[in-house]
Sequence to fold (438 residues):
Amino acid sequence: MKITIKTFAHFKDICGFQEKELTVSDNITISDILREITRLHPEMHKHATSVLCAINQEYKDLNYRLNDGDKLALFPPVSGG
Amino acid sequence: MKITIKTFAHFKDICGFQEKELTVSDNITISDILREITRLHPEMHKHATSVLCAINQEYKDLNYRLNDGDKLALFPPVSGG
Amino acid sequence: MNEITFQKDPITQATINSKIGTHLDGAIVTFIGRVRKNSRGREVLYLEYEIYEEMARKELQKIEKEAVDRWSLNTCIIIHRIGRVEISETSIFIAVSSPHRKESFLAAEFIIDEIKKSVPIWKKEFYNDGSEWISERS
Amino acid sequence: MNEITFQKDPITQATINSKIGTHLDGAIVTFIGRVRKNSRGREVLYLEYEIYEEMARKELQKIEKEAVDRWSLNTCIIIHRIGRVEISETSIFIAVSSPHRKESFLAAEFIIDEIKKSVPIWKKEFYNDGSEWISERS
Fold:
């Protein structure tokens, strides 16, 4: 199935992309994807405990299983206001 | 000794004056003056428990003994803001 | 900057904004009290505020000093209308600023709460069929 | 009236004031967040805010709805700057109104607290010698 990954703030700098289409296997979790991203971009490792995830603009936890067409966003703790 | 009495809001309506000079005996307390005013203006009676008193722009309680030249203010609970 | 003003004219915020906050301040909280059309179930036409001005100024200075000292405010501006005030007009304007927001929120609420307790100002409501002095705690 | 705005241009209060409050409201509380020159001991030249706008709007709508429902607000206006923001400029403006003051104070503080927890906006500080993404809780 196909999903989109978006990154923000320093995660964008680390991963080197802002938005990317990806073909992934069925039943994949956010956790699985994050593990793969961390393998490709080891600097993500130190953010492992603070990363926030959203699917289609709604916060989700790492166990969430993605569906075809999902938009996954990965970002650090927010700092607006 | 001479003192001045000021009244505000509905106390002014009841007492019929805004500011008045008075000659009073030494050692008189606010309580004494208030008793005399209530005798002259019985409508003040129902405000006996809520009246606020100030001497020279500072809150004082009923036991305060006045000095020559003091400015006594008598007024109901405030309602600004 | 600290400022206490009693004024007969309407309070317009435009003239105030430029005075509020320094480059040290991350937070400004303002409180605006407005005259409501409806009070205790009666329709109010307008208000009049009476003030014991010398004492009101002293009491407000105490409140302002306590707030500024306690929460290290860099701005504390308090403006109260006196005389006749129309429906929906601002009767009181309070603005405080501080480096962080918690202090400004606490200070603004403290100031209006204290004003309502101790500053000698009284409100008279005018209705179609008369008027009445309002005493919050009587 | 309820309103959520993200804007690149400076926030000027003049245009906002007329929208705030109804004749039912005795209280308006505003919170203004400003960019401070000094952050964590470093001198900041300016900021940039990045936003995940579709999600930020949804999160803000949830916060606004909760505040309006919980405290029966008649006004809830939230404006957040995005992009480059200079020192002493307003980064966020919140205005709420309600019949009585307690509700407006609680709501304004709730809204800014929640925004800082959940709305996907990130601040990058620029210094003389570089820049840094700020993550409040990392």
About this structure: Chain B has two helices and five strands. Residues 16 and 49 of chain B are 20 Å apart (CA to CA). The first helix of chain B runs from residue 9 to 15. Chain B has a mean pLDDT of 97.
